[in-house]
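Recap quiz, item 2
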Amino acid sequence: MLLEMVADSIGDRVAVGSLTYAELFERASAGSKLVGDRLIAVDINSEAVPIGLFSAALAGIPYVPVNYRLSDEQLRAIVERAAPGTAVVDPDVVGRLDDIEGLHVIDRPSFLNTVSAGSERSDAPSDPDAIAVLLFTSGTTGTPKAAVLRHSHLTSYVLGTVEFLGADPEDAALVSVPPYHIAGLAAVLSSVYSGRRIVYLPQFSPEEWVEVARREAITHAMVVPTMLGRILEHVEASGSGLPALRHLSYGGGRMPVSVIERALTLLPNTGFVNAYGLTETSSTIAILTPDDHRAALASDDPAVRARLGSVGQPLPTIELEIREGEIWVRGEQVSGEYLGIGATVRDDGWFPTNDGGRIDGGGYLFVEGRLDDVIVRGAENLSPGEIEDALVEHPGVTEAAVVGASDDEWGEVPVAFVVRRDDITELELQSWVRVRLRSSRVPARITFLDELPYSETGKLLRRVLRTTSGS
Amino acid sequence: MELKAGSRWRSAVCDTEVVVVRAPSGSPSLECGGQPMIAHDAERPEGGTVDPAHAGGSQMGKRFADPESGIEVLATKGGAGSLALDGQPLALKDAKPLPSSD
């Protein structure tokens, strides 16, 4: 329906790569005739992603993007759960999916070639309760769960946040977030609905990102925090800015305040948006706007300045409350449903996010991380983020992560993992934290590492660190 | 008619098509060009005409709302008829764009 509207009004405008919206619609219509019960994608970014997503929608079946970087065993386990259906995959993946019952495997070039003939436009089915997307959560803990997003959730999100054809004809969005991340799918839907051309980066590298952003005069982009840090280093080193980039949003993990301050200085003409959301909420539910960023940076009031570390205010279409330190949300884009497990949304529509948070006097939301990550020292709850922020403020620290380690006296104590710039010592950093925070928050041990473990979508892998810390 | 959020409707007398963005309270009748709208997958009956009293037209991409019942619809195709709820015209809603978050 979204694509149909856009193809009807600006069919000649380029949608993705060199395809126009009219061509995208014709290819998605052709794709919708190929697929079986589900369209599974195990692939890098390319125009096959929007074609696949809309093919599935037109066929009235779920689109199931899966992370190709998983081990063979994990990948097969997920695809077996997602089957039966058709899998559109990177050529390198074909051999990894042999002999899965009910699965028809087609490599990306063949898929693109087959749909390139196009077909008459299919009429989109109109069941808002049909499943649009099954998204296996990144599984930073335990077995991955499949989040269920129905057409009603995604449509509510897009209609609630994006202006139809709101983009200027020269606007272009650089999408480097992988297709199996909710932000990668939200980017497709928002870009198409606003009429903004999509430029894909097949796989992220900071050099490539900056080069494509300059070459394609990219005006909009979304990155995860680790990407932004690396992009800034490259922009700084290469000595010229990103003049066309009007709008850079970030989300998907905690952004260190020092990185965003550097970004605001380095890219003075870019509007920054911090977007907070979950897979289960069809992407963004709160945003810190470009004006909020600049106001916070310019302010002498510590409370306003602190908002640079917030995720801003809830969307007007979302209700949000803090209950006993946990963020709860309600709204039509909120799914909170998992395949085979059912809905975790309460009868009155409220969904517990499992994220800790607080709201300041001006209505700005501060996310304090997963509740599972809270460290309980004695009877005191410690948020790792607060200690990490204090560590990163030290000029000799590049990155820091704090997890709980078991302790005979306190039950649990905070321990830190730090990537250092200079030759600083554990003792120095401990006293640095002590003068900034209370003594209970001083890491009992600090281990220096060359780098912190991240998933490729920028999530800090705390469980890896917990194993290291022996908790 | 059950005007659920996400449900799609077409005009019985013109090209207008809408999707319900926000469901109304109660069970009012959604009309276009003076006639109740029909399900999106239903065939448009022949011979219907737009009532001149409801011929203001609808434009694709625009939102129309009635604050009293809370309904909000988005025109996914424009047409000659104007939208109404139980005979009361829906008002064109000003879009207040949010900064893009993706």
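Residues 8-93 of chain B form one domain.
Chain B touches chain A through 23 residues (CB under 8 Å).
End of item.
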